[in-house]
């Protein structure tokens, strides 16, 4: 029988919505917990197969961000089958299946509804030992922050939709978006672990750093000059390529930040840019930092950048940007 802690909350519910974490976690045995997540969105690239791969990598990432192992997935699709051939949906599903298989998981089926616009994603279930669970709420003062993929997918994909993105830049962005975060997760485990973990997606680096700061009761300081960027994306970081999320993320984060007057405005936009299938943001003890960077480089992750640090929250400011 499941016990509870507090009014109506089961003791086996290890992670819910309180800290805006990447997935929910429910313990089903003393040594086993389920990790559950769902995500779907409209196409960010034209090629259906590539879109499916990106959508799957994005959904699987939430399990890796909890230090879990993906087990099963269900497709979620909205598709205008009265206007477009079903072969397009088939290619999307095939691309997703490739990434799920690469993660060592299985697609069990899914559900499709008719809609005026294509949308696709997955509900993913994973497994984790409760003692090995990582969340965004464990960062400690003194920790260093490491990011494992370069930023800029929002700018790049928006420019690509407007036919204003060089093909080589789009290729680099796609390379990052289809890359599973399993390699980065394995690197941190091989280096001795970390204190807190999240992935960088729709809220941008600044938004997810804010959530980590709030969950941990700490202040996070980001060094904008140290942010890794997709090569060629800087030229695309102009207002006509800002997504709607750029403004939303600024509104979400700015009431809680201390922004240095010397902060580079362009680099700030990259911190606010919504990412699709972004990298892991890792809060690691400084004594393990070098080992982590070595393990990330050994696995050829797309970035191994020290982008900030965790400070005590002495003045109520959750996020410092300089």
Describe this structure in words.
InterPro entries: PurM-like_C_dom, PurM-like_C_sf, PurM-like_N, PurM-like_N_sf, SPS/SelD. Its EC number is 2.7.9.3. Keywords: ATP-binding, Kinase, Nucleotide-binding, Selenium, Transferase. One of its GO terms (cellular component) is cytoplasm. Residues 21-128 form the PurM-like N-terminal domain. The protein is α+β, with helices and mostly antiparallel strands and 322 residues long. The chain folds into two domains: 13-131, 60s Ribosomal Protein L30, Chain: A, CATH 3.30.1330.10; 135-321, PurM-like C-terminal domain (Phosphoribosyl-aminoimidazole Synthetase, Chain A, domain 2, Alpha-Beta Complex), CATH 3.90.650. Helix content is 34%, strand content 25%. The protein is built from nine helices and 13 strands. It has helices at residues 48-64, 86-102, 153-161, 167-178, 182-190, 204-216, 244-253, 265-272, 286-298; strands at residues 13-15, 24-29, 32-41, 69-79, 106-114, 119-128, 144-147, 196-199, 218-222, 257-259, 280-284, 305-312, 319-321. The chain has a seven-stranded mixed sheet, sandwiched between helices. It has a six-stranded mixed sheet with strand order 1-2-3-6-4-5, with helices on one face. A hairpin with an 8-residue loop joins strand 1 and strand 2 (24-29). Helix 3 (153-161) crosses helix 4 (167-178). The mean pLDDT is 95.
